[in-house]
Amino acid sequence: MVLLILLMGYEFNLLAQISEGLIWAIHGQILCGDFNHNGWNDLVFRSTWPDNPTIDTMNAIQYYEHIGNNNYVLKDTIVFPMYYGAAPWDVGYVDNDNRLDLICDGQLPGEDTVKIIVFEPKSYYQYPNMIVGKYPFAGLRPIMQLSIQDLDRDSKKEIHGVSDASGYWRFAFENTGNNQCSLVWKDTLPYTHGCYQVPAAFSDFDRDGKMEIATMACRYGDTTDTNLVFFIENTGDNTFQVTAVETIFRLGGNIWDVWGGEDLDGNGFPEVYLSICLIPGYEIYFWLYKVEAIGEDDYEVTLLDSVMSCGFPEYRSCNGDIDGDQLPELIWSTGTDIYVYKYKGGEYQRVWHYDNWHQQGNRYAMCTVYDLNNNGWNELVVSGGDRTLIFEIDTTSIYAEERKSGICRHSFLDPPRPNPARGRIRIGFGLSEKSEASISLYDPVGRVVLNRDLGILPSGYHQRELRLSVPSGIYFLRLETDRKTFQRKVVVYD
């Protein structure tokens, strides 16, 4: 059963383009954040190094920083000699030294094994570019899909990943001290012959109070055409076991992407999404599936959509709130095409389609969502081949009729204007029903620096102006109503 309505209602603006990109899906993720703590957000990915022919391609980690007005500049690069390199997969605080850790896999000069490589900044205001940890696993074979988690909830961060040495292994290294990690769990995944990558999603999918890893197994080209989705549940301190397996038969096709962990349909159970592709020739067929719990260790598989594409399937999908209603959208990448879905009224509605191949001549598209320019709206970042594209939703394409008529079917908070702001900001918001409302401004450590009680307001569209008498910096504007809370970033300057 396909739960899909085609409703091409959203429009996006291309804000910026960087002339480099993440080429292969096995070469890491696109990571976003303020990596050097200077108030400006950054992009980091493994990319080509076109200006130096003596350096092998796809072996430089590059940090691009947003410097205002949707402009990005290359700020730092970690360069590796030919035939060596590292791929960034995740960023966060693995230990407790208050320095950001960049988690990569790769092979370093003078070493004969692929390892997990952890980079940290030399000081708080620098980029993570100093190696502070190297952890080998399973010999020469690649280590992929690294993620920082705390699945056993013991307040010790784990680095979870997969290696394809003599079969596919899932494993976890746990933090044991400052820049120290130890292997605490490993287990082989059956039936994964021929898998190009083995991605995973993390959440308490069946809401039993135990975190799970949702991952895949397949046998490309096998006559049984079997795709398996494994749910591996934490059962104690660094112990895991498979508690559910779902089978998806798709003639000749195999799973290439797994993502999710959010509750897009609002029923209380986070979903897992799968992309299956079949490559009979030049044309490639794709199927989008949802796997969702219907009880403890009990799951249901639903086909959502199917499309035909072309080119090699190098892609990575994601979920994220790109229309500002605090509910994430489903973003499905097939490499040559990107599809955005909104769950409304019991249906998945396709609200945007971008033809990456005919628009950009690009068959690769790894996606992520982040508010890089700090204007309160998350951007959709699409990186692949020799470019990275940064899109933002055209705010006039959503809730336009509700603003114009003043009759609101949704509650929402518009981005404050102007942003960055000096002296005062204008705020617009919609209420779908009569509600008490208040507006507050918080500093980065969570202190309230401004509060205005708006009283009981009728449903409809409202506008207010706030005077700002706070120091320069990044703040968070929060609108609280009876049913929902909305938040936007605000940059204030003197």
Topology:
Elements: E1 4-6, E2 12-18, E3 31-33, E4 42-47, E5 60-68, E6 71-79, E7 85-92, E8 101-107, E9 115-120, E10 130-136, E11 143-149, E12 158-163, E13 168-177, E14 180-189, E15 200-203, E16 212-218, E17 226-236, E18 239-249, E19 254-260, E20 271-278, E21 283-295, E22 298-310, E23 314-316, E24 318-320, E25 329-333, E26 337-344, E27 347-355, H1 356-360, E28 364-370, E29 379-384, E30 387-393, H2 400-405, E31 412-413, E32 417-422, E33 424-431, E34 435-442, E35 448-457, E36 460-467, E37 473-481, E38 485-492
Parallel strand pairs: 1-27, 23-28
Antiparallel strand pairs: 2-30, 3-4, 4-5, 5-6, 7-8, 8-9, 9-10, 11-12, 12-13, 13-14, 15-16, 16-17, 17-18, 19-20, 20-21, 21-22, 24-25, 25-26, 26-27, 28-29, 29-30, 31-33, 32-33, 33-36, 34-35, 34-37, 37-38
What does this structure look like?
The protein has 494 residues and is mainly β. The protein folds into 2 domains: 15-398, Integrin alpha, N-terminal (Methylamine Dehydrogenase, Chain H, 7 Propeller); 406-492, Immunoglobulin-like, CATH 2.60.40.1930. The protein is built from 2 helices and 38 strands. It has helices at 356-360, 400-405, and strands at residues 4-6, 12-18, 31-33, 42-47, 60-68, 71-79, 85-92, 101-107, 115-120, 130-136, 143-149, 158-163, 168-177, 180-189, 200-203, 212-218, 226-236, 239-249, 254-260, 271-278, 283-295, 298-310, 314-316, 318-320, 329-333, 337-344, 347-355, 364-370, 379-384, 387-393, 412-413, 417-422, 424-431, 435-442, 448-457, 460-467, 473-481, 485-492. The strands form 9 sheets. Strands 1-27-26-25-24 form a 5-stranded mixed β-sheet. A 5-stranded mixed β-sheet has the order 2-30-29-28-23, with no helix packed on it. A 4-stranded antiparallel β-sheet has the order 3-4-5-6, with no helix packed on it.
